[in-house]
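#lab-general

N.A. 3:47 PM
ok so I finally got the sequence cleaned up, no stray characters, all 144 residues accounted for. can someone with queue access submit it? mine expired

B.Y. 3:52 PM
send it over

N.A. 3:53 PM
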Amino acid sequence: MLSIILSGHGGFASGLEQAMKQILGEQPQIIAIDFPESSTTALLTRQFEEALAALDETEGLIFLTDLLGGTPFRVASTLALQKPGREVVTGINLQLLLEMVLEREGLSSKAFRLMALECGHRGLTSLEDEMGRHREAEAVEEGI
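B.Y. 4:20 PM
back already:
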C-alpha cells in the first residue's frame, strides 16, 4: 500500500486528516504534517524526515500538499527527488484525498499521481455545471 504524507500551511493537513477520519475512519500509512506560521523550513524538513522513517515505502510514497510553490511543496519536492517511487501532488482537497485513499491499494506512485490529477480535474465543478449535466441526462433518458 502506498504511504501518504499530507502537508500544508496552518492546520490544513491535520484538518484534512480529521475530516478524512470522520468520513472513512482510521486509515493506515498516512501522516499529516502542518506548517503553522511559527514553523521553519528546517523544522518542516525534520518532520518530513521523521515521517519518512515511520512509513513503509515498499510500494511508494506520495506527498500531498496544499499550494504549488509553497514551503511544504518545496520540501516535499526535494525529498521526492532523492528516492525513486516518491511523487508530489499539490493543490489537493478533501474530495481528492478521500477518493485517492480508497484507490491507492495496488497502485504505483506514478499511477496514483496520474489518477489524482484526473480526480482533481473532475472534482472541480460548479452547481450550474452539475445542474446542466443533470438536465442533459434527463433529456437523453426521455429520448430527446
